[in-house]
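In pairs, describe these two lines:
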Amino acid sequence: MKKKTIISIVVLLVVVLGIFGITKFAGAEGNNEGETIVVTHELGETTVNKNPKRIVVFDYGILDSLDKLGVEGIVGVVQSGLPEHLSKFASEDYSNIGSLKEPDMEKIFELTPDLIIISGRQADYYEELSKIAPTIHLGVKNENYLESFTENMNILGEIFGKEKAVEKELTTIDEAVEKLNAKVTEKGVNGLIALANDGSFSVYGAESRFGIIHNSFGVIPVDETIEASTHGQKASFEYIVEKNPQYLFVIDRAAIAGGTTSAKELFENELMAKTDAYKNGNIVYLNPSIWYTATGGFTSTMMMVEEIDNAIK
């Protein structure tokens, strides 16, 4: 009896330890509970728990990517100005955390987040937000959009255990960009980028926030001397007539920030009628919700590729 009892106990222990081992393995490879990583970003280094349960997201591009990856746990977002493909986050299932430039610090504190993700518009609040929860800056860089975008997506993949899904999405985008670049290069397309702001406008070059059109999509800049500035370089219609681009790509800031004059009203005039872009129907009004506020996401980046691809005849 004693021998049988001892054997039974040993068998029971083996079973229990086996179950525990499997459970521990699943935790390590699945949820990565208790693991941390150090994220190096534009504003410093931040230790982040893997698979955080409560996430506050300011950047629409990052929100776009987290949604695409099926990440759960988003509790707070900026609900004003959400692009159409992220409209579900305007519901009461998510808390409004202020505006893109003015975080609601009290609301964010109440949400007890495990991770806060910001980009350029919230950079000034980094230190204050870091006192509430680990905060990382994942904005894309103007001079090398695709490179910094890829870095950001890989960081998300590592934090949330979505490395394979991230790799798949990045491959799809890389292939689409390569195909577009080949098409544009073959045609030798040149162009100019303009941001309309109610009754005035600025132009942007290859090193600007919209520089992906030149640097990655292959559109030749008609002016390589445009200053690299967040707000662009002020310009006139006479300037556009002089440069005479084949394509004019226009982002309407007034459609996002408010104004009385639309981009189309601004650019449909007698001077513009002298340009090749106007004559050939190549003034392209880009989706301002994507290009002005929601760059840097899987869906938004693909939409950017598709808009330019559809515009190039």
Observations:
- The radius of gyration is 25 Å.
- The chain is about 45% helix and 20% strand.
- The CA atoms of residues 141 and 192 lie 20 Å apart.
